[in-house]
Design a protein that fits this description.
This protein has two domains: 76 residues, Zincin-like (2-Layer Sandwich), CATH 3.30.2010; 55 residues, no CATH class. Helix 3 crosses helix 4. The protein has seven helices and three strands, in the order H-E-E-E-H-H-H-H-H-H. The chain is mainly α.
């Protein structure tokens, strides 16, 4: 499925570059007259297939949610940081819903696959992306936030489920 994502990016006209000496894990860049490019830190992104899929789909999410405004590399104001948070949230939401569609997540619950880690394995995504996707799903289905904070995930094998 990782190859499907790579092909999908290329079909959209997005080139993918693998770099070794990047501080960031990944970034998406586009500009007028220049084809979009996703740069991936080879050492950080290729740890696992699930991590690669999660990061690449997030960067593809920027392609679909790009508003035409650039993100400042350094924050000049509070609003610069807030804008980046919104941009990153939209890309993360797109990635989570793309890799784990509602119908398939519902089927996982119906099949008794209810733990974050079990579902992450089933969908070949990071635990963090899976927890975030579950939060989005619960908001949609129940019309409210769950009482769980998706940013704080217990290590694999910890007791309890979300």
């Amino acid at each position: 499925m990782a190859l499907d994502l790579i092909k999908y990016a290329y079909d959209l006209g997005i080139s993918i570059e693998y770099l070794e000496n990047m501080k960031r894990e990944a970034f998406y860049y586009c500009d007028i007259g220049v084809p979009p490019v996703i740069c991936l830190n080879k050492k950080k992104v290729l740890r696992t297939k699930a991590h690669f899929r999660s990061v690449l789909s997030h960067e593809i999410g920027h392609y679909f949610t790009f508003t035409g405004q650039r993100i400042c590399a350094g924050y000049f104001t509070y609003w610069d940081k807030l804008h980046e948070d919104i941009v990153e949230y939209r890309a993360a939401k797109w990635a989570a819903e793309f890799l784990v569609p509602d119908e398939q997540l519902k089927k996982a619950f119906d099949d008794g696959v209810t733990g974050v880690w079990e579902q992450a394995d089933r969908f070949e995504v990071d635990d963090e992306l899976m927890a975030f996707r579950r939060e989005l799903y619960h908001r949609k289905v129940m019309g409210r936030r769950t009482n769980k904070d998706f940013t704080k995930i217990a290590p694999r094998g910890a007791f309890g489920v979300y």
